[in-house]
Amino acid sequence: MKLGIALPTSGPLAAPANIARVAQEAERLGYDSVWTYERLMRPLAPVAIRGGEPQPVPEAYRLAYEPLETLSYVAALTDHISLGTSIVDALLHPAIVLAKRFATLDQLSGGRLVAGLGQGWMPQEFAAAGVPMGRIGRGMDEVVEAMRACWGPDPVSYEGQFTHIAGSEINPKPVQPHVPILLGAVSPGGVRRAARIADGLIPLVVTRDQLLDATAAFRAAVVEFGRDPASVAVVARASVPLTAADLGADRPYLGGSPRQIAEDLSRLDGSGVGHVQFSTTGRAWRADASAATIDDELALYAELIELARK
Description:
two-stranded antiparallel ribbon; alpha/beta; globular; 13 strands; eight-stranded parallel beta barrel; 9 helices
């Protein structure tokens, strides 16, 4: 099982020094990956989050560092840990621009990029980017296809419904012969899209059953589409508390003390989930947050990976 940590790119602990420290400690401790995510803005009015009732947007989104610039900074401070986005909202960017930014990051990091993409969900962000929300769905297929074309041999040309690239030289190319593109998805349609066009799935962890069901559906669809199941990955995203003491029976799945989380991880053997990224550091907007919070969480992450590797 591979393990990763989300960098403190939002919330009260989001700062260059903390980002650098967590990235370097994650590498030193033996974690496989560090992750960033994209949030363009925090609307002040309530927003219907993923189809639910309108509610205030989480305060952690008041500050969110840009994911690719952050990972470029981290690339210069680390040697071998993988650098992932979970996720970048691909539809908010021109495909050629996004492809060049990812390729540059792959060059600067020596081929350590994992490109996690999603479609986005916040109407205000689509409006600010000048992109109609009707592009969700068919537009995602095109972005992935156009990005891969940009990463391929020159001359590059692409003609789609939303993307038009005249025959051109587009460089740099990524270091990796095939940059892994993973799609963040929660709906059945999104899971099937990932199985059809992506190199993996990033499911958001809610419960154990939900995670296992999404993983099974994804891997079954991969076979249905005639693809090799060994060629794809499932990287579960666990936005959970990490605590010094055990939590009670109602604790969130993959959350709690290092001992509890390590036990959960051990029971994922053979499930088809090969990588778990933990998103805890700096997520809550707390007035009492301080550097000691980073110290405490890194100590817990050290304990977690020691238990998980036994």
